[in-house]
Each structure stands twice: as C-alpha cells, then as structure tokens.
Predict the 3D structure of the following.
Amino acid sequence: MTAMNTNRMFNLTNKSQAKSTEKLSSGYKINRAADDAAGLAISEKMRRQVRGLTQASANSADGISCIQTAEGALTEVHDMLQRMNELAVKGSTGTLTTEDRVYITLEVRQLMNEIDRVHSATSFNDQNLLDGTFQNKQLQVGAEPEQYVSISIGNFSSNDLIASALAKGICYQTSDHTPSCFVTDGPVDPTTVPGDHVFWAPLASSNTTFAKFDYVDVNTIKPWGSPGHCHLLAAYDLTIFHSFSYNAITDENVKNRLTTDIDDRTAVGSGSEEVLVDNPPCMHQFDALNAFVKSAISDVSETRANLGAIQNRLEHTIRNLDNIVENTTAAESSIRDTDMAAEMVKYSNNRIIAQAGQTLLAQANQSKQGVLALLQ
C-alpha cells in the first residue's frame, strides 16, 4: 500500500510538472479551454480587438499616404497657378506689344494643359485622386463597424476650376472695355443692390454664350476704383487660354448654377462649349485670367487645407489606436501569458517532489524484501 500511495502521488507530480513544462515552453498559461474557460473567452475577445485596431492603424497610415499623394500633386497645381498669376499681371501692362502677349499666352496654355495632365495622372492604388471620382471614401479606423473617416477630393481639371470661378460671379476691373457682360439693364456698377439677379447675355450680333449666376453681393467687391470698367468673369474671356465645356463640369451644383434657367429666361450655356481661339490677346483677357487664377488658388488652398486637417486627424487617430493596442495587449497578456518566474518556481518545486517521490517509491519497493527474507 505504501508503494501504491507513493506511485499515485508520483504520477500527480509528473502531470503537474508536465503542465508547467507546457506553460514554460509555449509562453501561455492558457493553452486549452480546460486551463481557464472564462480567461480564454476574455482573452480571445481582447485579441480580436487588438488585431482589429492594429489593422485600423495600418488603414489610417494608408489614408495618410493617399492624402500626401493628392496634396503633393495640388502643391504643383498651386505653383502653376502662381506662375499664371505672374503672367496675368505681366500681360496686363501697357508696355507689352501684342506679340509679347502671344508669347505669354503660349506659356499659360501649356500650364493649363499640365494642370489637366496632373489632374488625370495623379492616382493612389489605381484610383484617380483629382478627377472628381474620389468621393466619400471611408477609411476604417476602428475595430468595430461604421468607425469611419471620410475623404472626398474634387475635380481639379482646368475646366472645373474655370467653372468654379464662373459660378462665384466674380467681378473684375479692366481698363480695356470689351462689352461682354451685362446685367438686366447694363454693365455692372456700384448701384447694383446686393442680392439682385445678375445674368450673362450673348455678345451683340453673336451666338457666343456665357455663364450666368444667381446673385452678386457687391458689398464684397467695393470699391470699384477708377478708372476702369467692372466685368463679370465669363468663359469667353478665357478662351484665348483654354477651351471650356459646360457638359464636362463634374460638380452638379456648379453645373446647375451655370446652365439652369433663372426667372423664366432662356437657359444659357447648357450643352454648349467655348472653344480655344487664336485671336490676338488683349489686356482685358489678362485681367480676366488674373480674376480666374485668384479663384482657382482659393479653391486649391481650401482643398489642401481640408486634406491637411484630415491628415492631422489621422495622425492623432494612429496614436490613439496604438495606445489602445498597447494597453489592451498588456491586459490580455496578464490573462493569457505565463508568469515565467512563478511558473519556474512551481516547476522546480514539482521537480524536487518528483525526485523525492521516485526515491521513496524505490524504498517502498525495497521494504518488501523483508518478507522474502522471512520466507527464505
């Protein structure tokens, strides 16, 4: 009976030592549900959260890379618009000849074409960024559903930048009085009441069409200054530099403002185009270019500011996600991982007991030798 009892205890010690060996070798104190059913369930939930948040952090980093790609392209668009602004100011001075302005016009056209090339060629992961199709892209920045950060980037073709400028109802001054724009009764002047409807009309004896606008608040553009004439920016003013198409406008709000009938008047610009012309440029057109560039720079600046704000937000998101991952991992580790020091003490203790049990089992077996001696 002594040997049987010693053997039973020896087997229990060996099983305990085997479990300690398993925990020390795997690094986990929960290797199966039987080890700690509740702890396993809690640990797996935490692991799901940690892995989801880790991927969300990677998603945010991808979003930053996408934003930096778009913002880098818009930086070049900004630089080209700034150069066009210099050329517009240069072309409107009276010391230049018509031939000089032709040379300036050639460079402006090339810059317009390069803006269009950048708009069509800038992409991230085979998705165009600046052609108006990158809308409402949801970045998953959390481990749970519907934890999104939305990104939208508009269309930055020359055509859409021109359309945006037209839709603002921009007034500009020029000393070259070309009668191309009118309101209901004549050229725009300081007597126009804020909120009055302003319309585009065709040139006399011409089928050329112009954009029209809902309202102009003249308080925002006073004083007019003198001398000079106030004009509303028209697509026709810019056809010396670039062609324009109403049908190609991607922003429906802008398109409706430029083509929808107002006050039962015939819709102007719907389905029509203003084609590139090779007429000798005049100062008036460079004044119009100046007004357009000012609007375009504002549009690009607004988008870059928005992208920069989203990038900053994503950087904060990444830091927050990494912090949550770190703390959740620490909590999961306390539940799932082996306490190596404590388990090593337990292992050493079991090893000593196993050795003692083995010795005592041998002695218990030897105690039966006395019975054999009596029989002899």
Notes: Residues 50-322 form a domain with the f41 fragment of flagellin, N-terminal domain fold (CATH 1.20.1330.10). The two ends are 23 Å apart (CA to CA).
